[in-house]
Amino acid sequence: MISVKIRNSESFEKAMKRFTKACEKSGLMAELKRNNFYEKPSEERKRLKKEALKKKNRAIRFGND
Fold first, then answer.
1. Which residue from 21, 23, 19 is spatially nearest to 6, judged by alpha carbons?
2. pLDDT tens for residues 44-57?
């Protein structure tokens, strides 16, 4: 569960912004979008393969093997 503690004299808007960033960072929103509609197993394999390729290319490009 994602939680954000409000700091002293922090506005609600800033706390909400930190919360939304924490949600994005944890991948919660991406997971919700992914589960919103049914994805065929073949489409899921294609997507995962594409993500792995992007990750591999990024590691090669930036030297983080």
1. 19
2. 999 999 999 999 99
